[in-house]
Amino acid sequence: xKVRPPAVAGLFYPADPPTLRxxxxxxxxxxxxxxxxxxxxxxPHAGYAYSGxxxxxxxxxxxxxxxxxxxxxxxGPAHRVPIRGLAVPSVDAFMTPLGLVPIDTDxxxxxxxxxxxxxxxxxxxxxxxxxVQLPFLQQLASDFAIVPIVVGAAKPEEVAAALDRVWGGDExxxxxxxxxxxxxxxxxxxxLDAQTTEAIEAMAPERFHRDAACGRLxxxxxxxxxxxxxxxxxxxxxxxxxxxxxRRDQVVGYGxxxxx
Length: 260
Known about the structure:
This protein is of the alpha/beta class. It is 36% helix and 23% strand.
């Protein structure tokens, strides 16, 4: 078995398993409850001290689907390695301090048939956007596989086409990993993130400004695929690092959204 080991354990989130479980459980416990899980969520991917509470708000939405959850399609932007198109790994599983997370290799094989999907372990090796989501999923469910996709220089239409391939039914949920604005002062970040949030709620990614979100391309692809299915997006949480654990002169924005 080929395993992608954790790259940011002890940096973005606790490396000690009991501490990690308690941390994630605390974020989930603080979030509002829901009766029906959405098809997709958008969740941030910064260090847990900064974005963990907002991510917890997003993942709490999936609690009603925990028992039926068998596959999670995870999309995040490429931070470390520049790639064209979408990148899937060749490994069989990802590892976190909470254990192995298997990859749905059949779904990955289906994605590889698309001309804009490449296999790149390098794109995944040090990428945190997908990794930091895994402990939340491991806290939620015990019998699921993932379809990890790093999105590089791609068109939203390509992301949407990839999602169509692996959309699945109630057993499949989609997670897009993205932060919002980066390194503005607090007031500017709130204004920019409010504009991005309005575009998400309107299912109108064409309104995104270029620096709206590091994951604007996977978000745009999700919104395209969801809009064709008559779905809608709603905001669950909108804060920034100045609200959680950081200074207010240079902040990073975090949003949690549900698409159903």
